[in-house]
Design brief:
Distance between the termini: 39 Å
Enzyme class: hydrolase
Strand order of the largest sheet: 4-3-2-1-5-6
CATH class of the largest domain: Alpha Beta
Number of helices: 13
Function: Splits dipeptides with a prolyl residue in the C-terminal position.
Catalytic activity: Xaa-L-Pro dipeptide + H2O = an L-alpha-amino acid + L-proline
CATH topology of the largest domain: Creatine Amidinohydrolase
Largest sheet: 6 strands, mixed
GO molecular function, one term: proline dipeptidase activity
Helix content: 25-40%
Pfam families: PepQ_N, Peptidase_M24
Structural class: alpha+beta
Oligomer: single chain
Strand content: 15-25%
């Protein structure tokens, strides 16, 4: 066994020990003797026997890393070893679930379940039991409390700050995702269309489509201007100008979420300049990440940088301050600067102030902002500024009081390039930050 493996196992062991101590404290504070966490299960399509896609409940995955386990239960009862009931039926239709091994087998009591439903009741003797997961309240045993809001808020808060094991998982996921982005760029350069770029990405990251943490966004030309573009054209366009790839990888349940934008040899030179401009100010935003920074303030700085780029490239003729004030920058970039990242791509806790779940809503001008907190060490965030040509958002300015503030001939020239987004995954450290999306692609420009 290598020292690298030893180190990974040491980190995982420390992670589980941290969870045991944290859960004991949270349950005591909330007045519960135990919590039973359900992994969840897939539904079926209406009038069909085919299952929908599935991903395990985040608080279950926080312990186990088993993001695709269905019908599993995890019992956390302070004073006893955590007990994992894993669903492993005798089945000739599907491959049976193997017993967990390694650190999980060492630190958790494992018990296979042959049937779906509640785990053996003899193991649950808590006087006050919390049950969390996607369950029907009518199925609860007498006295159990389903999804207590205060408990969920405290557990969400626990996931906001990542330990060394989680940081390692996120770094590994990023390395795989970076390999996928390199393959996607190479495929695009070779003339591939969206579907073939997606297949190249999956091959490079060694994933099936059911394993990616979110549906990959592969947009060529104007498709890059649809923020969550959800299709893959089979054929490449006659004149490929731009490619936007927003795609990740999952490692032990932890997600990478990386976006890159590339210009082809057929792109408008101004588009290449804008891609470089977004890269430049994305790095300046990342450089500011540190404990105590208000993420809402950083989001507002994104709009200031975007406005300055629009002025510098003469896309607009008003001042940067006026462009932000009148909402023009929000027409060019309608989404938030980033979000919390972890087991879920848009991870929990981003809009709450503390472990009591005190709401921390986004500013009225930025309802899509998913992270509204002051940053602290251990938080992992995405930094993903964008610049898009989206006709429906620009139309009010084209026909309104600010119509002379924009060079519409240039906007029309750029419309079939779609848009630009550059996204890295960054952990806040005690003395600043560490970009988990390492140098392979960062060094490109």
């Amino acid at each position: 066994m290598t020292s690298q493996t030893d180190s990974a196992e040491t980190r995982q062991r420390a992670h589980l020990e941290r969870l045991e101590a944290a859960y004991a404290s949270i349950l005591a504070t909330q007045g519960f003797d135990a919590v039973l966490i359900y992994s969840g299960h897939a539904g079926v399509h209406f009038a069909d026997d085919q299952e929908t896609s599935f991903k395990g409940y985040g608080h279950f995955v926080h312990w186990t890393g088993a993001s695709h386990h269905q019908h599993d239960w995890l019992l956390i009862q302070p004073g006893s070893k955590p007990r994992w009931y894993y669903y492993a039926p005798a089945d000739f239709w599907h491959l049976a679930t193997l017993a967990p091994t390694g650190v999980l087998a060492e630190m958790l009591t494992l018990e296979p379940l042959r049937d779906t439903g509640w785990p053996p009741p003899r193991q649950i003797s808590a006087r006050r039991l919390a049950v969390i997961g996607n369950l029907d309240a009518s199925s609860m045993p007498l006295g159990a409390e389903l999804n207590p809001p205060a408990l969920l808020a405290a557990l969400d808060e626990l996931r906001m700050r990542k330990d060394d094991y989680e940081r390692h998982c996120l770094f590994v996921a990023n390395q795989w995702a970076l390999a996928g982005h390199e393959a996607a760029r190479a495929a695009f350069a070779d003339g591939a269309g969206e579907l073939d770029i997606q297949l190249a990405y999956l091959a490079a990251t060694r994933q099936r489509e059911s394993q990616v943490p979110y549906q990959n966004i592969i947009g060529i030309n104007h498709h890059a201007g649809t923020l969550h573009y959800q299709h893959y054209d089979v054929e490449a366009p006659d004149v490929p100008r731009s490619l936007l790839v927003d795609a990740g990888h999952a490692h032990a349940g932890y997600a990478a979420d990386i976006t890159r934008t590339w210009a082809s040899a057929h792109a408008d030179p101004l588009f290449e300049r804008l891609v470089q401009g977004v890269k430049d100010y994305q790095r300046r935003l990342i450089a500011r990440l540190a404990p105590g920074l208000d993420f809402v303030d950083l989001h507002r700085d994104m709009h200031r940088h975007l406005a300055e780029l629009l002025v510098e490239t003469r896309l607009i003729s008003i001042s940067a301050e006026a462009a932000v004030e009148c909402g023009l920058t929000r027409a060019f970039c309608p989404h938030g600067l980033g979000h919390s990242l972890g087991i879920q791509v848009h991870d929990v806790g981003g809009r709450q102030r503390d472990n009591r779940g005190t709401p921390l809503p986004p500013p009225a001008a930025d309802p899509a902002l998913r992270l509204t907190r002051v940053l602290d060490a251990g938080m992992v965030v995405t930094i993903e500024p964008g610049l898009y040509v989206i006709p429906m958002l620009l139309a009010p300015f084209r026909h309104g009081a600010q119509r002379d503030a924009v060079d519409w001939s240039v906007v029309d020239r750029l419309q079939d390039h779609g848009g630009i987004r550059i996204e890295d995954n960054v952990i806040v450290t005690t003395d600043g930050h560490d970009n988990l999306t390492q140098d392979k692609l960062i060094a490109e420009g």
